[in-house]
Structures are given as C-alpha cells and as structure tokens.
Amino acid sequence: MQIEPESYPENAVLLIFHLLPDGSNFRTAISIDASEGGVQFSSGQAFFEDVFILNDSFWSIDIPWSNPSRIMLWLSINMEGRFFLVAITGTLTGANNFGEMFANPAGTLSYFTGPLTGTTGPAGGISLSIDNSGATPKLFVENRLGSNRLFTLSTMGK
What we know:
Blueprint: E1 2-7, E2 13-19, E3 27-33, E4 39-41, E5 46-53, E6 57-62, E7 69-77, E8 83-90, E9 98-104, E10 109-113, E11 126-131, E12 138-143, E13 149-157
C-alpha cells in the first residue's frame, strides 16, 4: 500500500491510499479530503461528508465517479425532520438528473442546472444542481433555510 498526498486548490490536501493488486498497477482504494474530511471509496461507490453551509450560500463537489451516473444521495440537515433521499441518474446534464424518492418536509427541495449562487432557489428550501460546464461535473447544494446549517451527505453507487 502507498500513501500519496496531492495538492488541491486552496491548499487542501487529498490523501489517497493505493493498492497494488497485480504487482504492477496501482488502484485507488480510498481517498480522504483532509480539508473537509470527506471519504470516497474506489469509483465513488460510497461518499460521506458533513458540510457546514452558511445561509444563502452553497457548497459543491466534483462528481468524477461516472458519467452516466447511478447515484443515490441521502441528505440530512441539523434541523428536526429534515431528511431527503434522491437518485441522480443518466448523463450528467442538470436538473433532469434528479429523481426525488423521499423528501421531508415535502416540497422543500428544488432542482437546477448549472452553478448555484447562494440565492438561486426559493427562500426556505434547499437547492440541488448539476453543473457540467467544466471538465468534471459538479454537484451543488444551496442553503436557503434562513440560518447556517450542518448538512450530512452520503452517496452509494457510481
């Protein structure tokens, strides 16, 4: 096993564990983003991260796992009764990639295409978006809940 640090923008360090399954070719087994503590397993099969998002602000993450994708996203917030289950499927193009499986409370998630600004979606809710304008698609999460909140995101799939 090899531990390899890599530089990312804003001095974030990504710690990657490589396995040598056949004696000559390395394969990434686990990636850990040291700046935020997010853990990603090979091929994006699982990702878990706690993210503090200020009110009227957003957070984003690259989605390098696969395109077309087959992702199930569980999202919860540090507010009583706020939790969501969403599928992200198909060629990553935007709002049409989201399939809401469960939302509590209902009607509080909005879906968009392109980068979010922090005030893109309706007040009192949460906005999700796919932006594919760069080399790697990004998932955006926007907090319009009226206060700063801790979001927990977990994915399964590719």
